[in-house]
# Entry
Amino acid sequence: MKAQRLREALDTMAAREGILGIALVDTVTGMVWQATGKLQSIEDVASAATDYWRLYQRTKHSFEALGVLRVATLMHGKGQITLRECGADILLITVSTRMGAVDWEQWKADHPILVEMVNGM
# Structure
């Protein structure tokens, strides 16, 4: 039941304007918990994107003056990847068309709800 509610929340987010796909990924293993969206390769992209986060984890001492990384946005030629922690050792990975196409305020409002669901699993 909890997994189904989590899936429904992700499906709702993935259906929003400008979002190509959303996934929850284990930061340690890169294993995709759940993924949804229009992007056929969302699972592959999400799993690979955890490497960006792990790189930060290995080198975070270099960024101490900036504080803890909260969100990482990676701009690619045809879209972007946004990474944010979403519970213990889980990343919320959002693939979108471009910054201006997504309602990021709604995305930020959805985040704590997802964290609660993930932590409750």
